[in-house]
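#onboarding

Welcome to the new folks! Below is a worked example of what a typical request in this channel looks like: someone posts a single protein sequence, and someone else replies with the predicted structure as tokens. Don't worry about understanding the tokens yet, we'll cover that in week two.

Example request:
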Amino acid sequence: MRDWPAHLGAACRHSHVADTGERDARRGPTAATIKHAAVLIGIRDAPEPTIILTQRSTALRHHPGQISFPGGRIEAFDASPQEAACREAFEEIGLARHAIDILGELPEYTTVTGFSIRPVVARVAAEAMIAPDGIEASQLIELPLARALCAAAYRFQRIEREGQTYRIYSIDHAGHHVWGATASMLVTLARASAALESRSFTIASEAKTG
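Example response:
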């Protein structure tokens, strides 16, 4: 994709109005219990662009060892969700703010653990120096953008809990299993990108568990 920053910026805008018909069903927390967070979907501006992911430290209380985007709670001192995402990326992987060019945002993603997450999509300078802090992030993973935008790379499971059916997305790369909220946000971006190009986007299903 020659001009992927402009394309993904348009995809972000399109994602807020497109009706995909295949939404992740994991909703539940009330407005009174919700906690607001932001993550950075940073895409390195290399000849073969890559999405920057981290493996969370196994010492963390929430989701230890899982693959995620840099991010965390939006604090009162953050000027915006975008700045919160950039701040968290600096704290977790040392990504400098001047190396980040915001392209847009995806719709908020609300989890059953009580977080409403604002996904911020951005271009990251090719020469940006990054490294895991060893406290929240233990490892860096760079997922090729081309793979992340390909429907064939994804799978989903339908899981039934207490009479509700949940759709859990996943994508694998280089021995890493990306699933849950992180994979779902990638799917939202990929689906919006496909819709913008009038391409179909169909994900194969795995066997239902539960």
